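Aim 2, interim progress: modelling of the zinc ion-bound target.
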Amino acid sequence: MAWFRREHTPLSRNDLESRVPEGLWVKCGSCKEILYRKDVVKNLSVCPKCGFHFRISAPERLEMLFDGPYEELDASLVSADPLKFVDTKPYAKRLQDGRAKTNIPDAVICAVGSLGGMKAVVAAMEYAFIGGSMGVVVGEKVTRAAERALADRLPLVVVSCSGGARMMEGTLSLMQMAKISAALSRLHDARLPFLSVLTDPTTGGVTASYAMLGDLNVAEPGALIGFAGPRVIEQTIRQKLPEGFQRSEFLLEHGMLDMVVDRRELKKSLVRSLKFLLD
Ligand SMILES: [Zn+2]
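Predicted structure of the complex, ligand included:
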């Protein structure tokens, strides 16, 4: 077949459902056990049989971490479409769909509230909003969250769940990496703790900037964490990658992470770490 006329084969759908689906019963993507949905949700969306961590939304994450009600920050920031970008569909339409699907304005929610009795700023990313990609709004909100933490002398926790920079905003999205890193460095100079929580998946520009800059980098079990995907790496180096490559446990073993913590222990663990760092 001529190279130029090669037909596109659609990518195969991943049958491993990572978010708890709707309905009365759910099937665990890992152990294939049929579970009562309420039991899974009550268990913080962790499979009670095998410990598989389903993906959770940003509001669920904030509810799980904060002791009670919290104050949302910069909720009015919304993405513009500076490049008038169109791929398989216009970027403006993607933004609209993302908002309709998730009911949140962009791929991150930043909030201030009480975490184990301590006031803290927490940012949680939303994967269902264009793959949790980091555009100008995500970059600006995380930067402002760090600046709020600095101004009020509060610790900062960022929970990442992202496919990386938002390519529909081109270079503008890449510039967020430098902006957030600079804000975090000011936080560091002020000796305020920043804890980075990496959840499935954390890749691309997010891993290459703030997700790996925590005073502690904590991951959930089995999370995919990396810069480029395994297939791209395999094709580049022409070698088979080792088992479990780019998963939390592998990265912990190779010194890229400080802790891998089960979601059911996460809050307790973060509170303990913050208390230690703030003392
Ligand atoms: Zn399971």
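The CA atoms of residues 150 and 209 lie 19 Å apart. The first strand starts at residue 25 and ends at 27.
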